[in-house]
Write a structure and sequence with these properties.
With about 375 residues, this protein is α/β, with parallel strands linked by helices. The chain has 2 domains: about 140 residues, Cytidine Deaminase, domain 2 (3-Layer(aba) Sandwich), CATH 3.40.140.10; about 220 residues, Dihydrofolate Reductase, subunit A, CATH 3.40.430. Strand 17 and strand 18 form a beta hairpin. Helix 3 runs parallel beside helix 4. It is globular. It catalyses: 2,5-diamino-6-hydroxy-4-(5-phosphoribosylamino)-pyrimidine + H2O + H(+) = 5-amino-6-(5-phospho-D-ribosylamino)uracil + NH4(+); 5-amino-6-(5-phospho-D-ribitylamino)uracil + NADP(+) = 5-amino-6-(5-phospho-D-ribosylamino)uracil + NADPH + H(+). Converts 2,5-diamino-6-(ribosylamino)-4(3h)-pyrimidinone 5'-phosphate into 5-amino-6-(ribosylamino)-2,4(1h,3h)-pyrimidinedione 5'-phosphate. It comes from gamma proteobacterium HTCC2207. Its EC number is 3.5.4.26, 1.1.1.193.
Length: about 375
């Protein structure tokens, strides 16, 4: 399919609009839509929080008339009814003559059916323009529907010599306030924040999003990510700080009589407790991710110590590593970034750098497993 310069310009605008929803639309995807008639934009919009309008409806509401328009949409219009009606129907009823789509919707309730219904209605459909960019924008939503797992981001803050805490466990603070504020943006973009019982007992964290709409440039209400504590033996106290915070807390533990008994006061404190299979004496992390996907988490961020973070890496569950490097040296007695059973140089995990930038005095590097290595 050959696309014109105008096609590319309008789809680029649709992607910009879609990005506005990346903090607010979950579990739905972030979608943008631009309507064009005779070379002029007549309406545009992006997906609102779950239960609100989809991008196509927002764009149509902004247009005086869309008859004969070309619609540029970053994800295949939905063909099913959920909390809102099917977007293909409103596009057909509006008299749209052509629809340009960035990528197909992997949701099995759609999965090409939206395209088919548009074509059956006599509408010209083109799909694949800026597909990679559109998939990147909704990588968590896409992975959840294609693999049944959320996108997994491991966030680490480390000294220049790769240390994340002193031997005592003290870790506040390694990085600058600018980096810690940037972490709030990461939290806001994820559906769940995962930590381990070691970090919880040492730091008693709140694990909340502490950033404003103005900071993120969005108008829709921000949600608090689900807080997840991996606690195989249920050592967590009902007096933990996170129970007093807005949002929900989920404790993942193994199943056993002690855990069942210890779960009662935690549930009374407001936590949900899920009992998962064990692996090597700990909560099976793959099963945890399956559970979070069932709870419609598109993407999760791990903020934990070397043991739990290393577990996600060692089990091949890492999709993305975001590391904040501080220009400091902690020395050889301090704790490492990961506990990883790598014995030979040939057994290393190769990573590809996707982004590198300075945040305050620190350096933030975003990496992903190098599948071509």
């Amino acid at each position: 399919m050959a696309y014109s310069v105008d096609d590319r310009e309008y789809m680029s605008r649709a992607l910009e609009l879609a990005a506005k929803g990346r903090f607010t639309t979950s579990p739905n995807p972030s979608v943008g839509c631009v309507l064009v008639v005779d070379g002029a934009i007549v309406g545009e919009g992006h997906t609102r929080p779950a239960g609100g309008n989809h991008a196509e409806v927002e764009a149509l509401n902004a247009a005086a008339s869309a008859k004969g328009a070309t619609a540029y949409v970053t994800l295949e219009p939905c063909s099913h009814s959920g909390k809102t009606g099917p977007c293909v129907e409103v596009l057909i009823d509006a008299g749209i003559s052509r629809v340009v789509i960035a990528c197909e919707d992997p949701n099995p309730k759609v999965a090409g059916e939206g395209i088919k219904l548009l074509q059956d209605a006599g509408i010209e459909v083109a799909c694949g323009l800026y597909e990679d960019q559109a998939r990147e924008l909704n990588k968590g939503f896409i992975k959840r529907h294609e693999q049944g797992l959320p996108w997994v981001v491991v966030k680490m803050a480390a000294s220049l010599d790769g240390r994340t805490a002193m031997a005592s466990g003290q870790s506040q603070w390694i990085t600058t306030p600018a980096s810690r504020k940037d972490v709030q943006r990461l939290r806001a973009a994820n559906c769940a924040i995962i930590t381990g019982i070691g970090t919880q007992l040492m730091d008693d964290p709140s694990l909340t999003v502490r950033i404003t709409n103005d900071d993120l440039g969005v108008t829709d209400s921000l949600r608090q990510p689900l807080r997840v504590v991996v606690d195989s033996k249920l050592q967590m106290s009902p007096e933990a700080r996170m129970f007093a915070q807005p949002g929900d807390t989920l404790i993942a533990t193994m199943d056993g009589p002690e855990q069942r008994e210890r779960a009662l006061p935690l549930e009374a404190a407001g936590a949900a407790v899920v009992f998962l299979p064990a692996r090597d004496g700990h909560v099976d992390l793959h099963e945890l991710l399956l559970e979070l996907a069932r709870r419609e988490c598109n993407s999760v961020m791990v903020e934990a110590g070397a043991g739990l973070a290393g577990g996600f890496v060692a089990e091949g569950l890492l999709d993305e590593l975001v590391c904040y490097w501080a220009p400091k040296l902690f020395g050889s007695d301090a704790r490492p970034m990961f506990e990883l059973p790598i014995q030979t140089i040939d057994a290393h995990l190769a990573l590809a750098v996707k982004d590198m930038r300075q945040i305050g005095e620190d350096i933030r590097i975003t990496l992903r497993p190098d599948k071509d290595y």
